[in-house]
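User: Fold this; tokens only.

Assistant: Input:
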Amino acid sequence: MRDLNDYDVVIIGGGPIGCITGEHIKNGKVLIVEEHQSIGVPLQCAGLISKNGVKELGNPKGAVNKVRGAYIYSKNSMAKIGNEEIRAYVFERKVMDKDIAIRASKKCDFLLKAYGEIEKDKDGYKVKITHLGKNIVLKPKVIVGADGSKSITGKKLDLVNNKNREILSSCQFEMVNVEVDDDFVYVFLDRRYSERFFTWIIPMGKDRVRVGLIDKGNCYNKLMKFITEHEIAKEILRNATITEFSTGSLPIGYLDRAFKDNVLLVGDAACNVKPLSGGGLYFGAIGGKIAGEVISKYLNGEVDSLTLYDKKWKDAFGSEIKSGLRVRKFLLKLGEDTLDELIGKLARSDLIDYINKHGDMDRQASLAIKVLKSLNIGLGFRILRDLL
């Protein structure tokens, strides 16, 4: 490892998006600072990734199952989406994350069990690193905040706040001895268990599943209630045993700016997350590659600021995030009975064939808007138009 003062770029956060950002910086010396002692832990993700998402991540190792669609349940209705086409893969995140980190290590150095935080002085931003009881201060040319949904970097830059994002909590079990259709995920839009998002059962193959939910809080108790009370869940999980427990958080929102001076945000720190599903790896990987490209130009002197980063990620997927936020706002206004009506009508409509043919896990908002406008759910066109 080179002298710590010799780095041009410091990336705070060694998750997949931090690593992909470092991997795509073509010049300069890069240090990735990771607070945990091992890449890939703790698990904070359901691990379901679309085909395009897998491609953007560089086809990493760790896939354990293939998924063809989803059973979508409301309180009293169910719609089945999917056909013979493989739509997504389920990953063992510890394996996947380490494989991406190994790729990045060909261009980047890692400092594990190290906590990095930005500070500002009269000359600009620097990074203060706490590592094994020692404090180290670095002044790189560029700093990247890849420090997740609760990004301290973003807060210190005053780029993220309660007005432009919402932080939800997640809770998940891995369970074994489960009898399940492992070609399909199970999604439960049931507000008895999750008021602001949804609950899921994701098959991992060979009688393993991940069972989890995202909501505003009290997620463990809500998940236990789901497992013990929901009729479908009780049947699927009747002989199941919990083998792993994980928690996490999810940012839902949109940042008008994801950089300031010589610091930029990527991944969850930048709210590069699908508002309807909570998936962050597809947009995050695209944004990480864009960040790597812009940082390379900046280090080369081709651009004199990081402004280009904001323009390029917004062009790539910014409108999709905005549309997803509008759809989510609309769905949250629906009562339980109206949500039931929507899922029931969807199940009986010819829209299922349209979704199976044209559906895109990574561009969900435009499809959702078409489906909602096609299903007259009695709210009136004007209300629907205003919200979407």
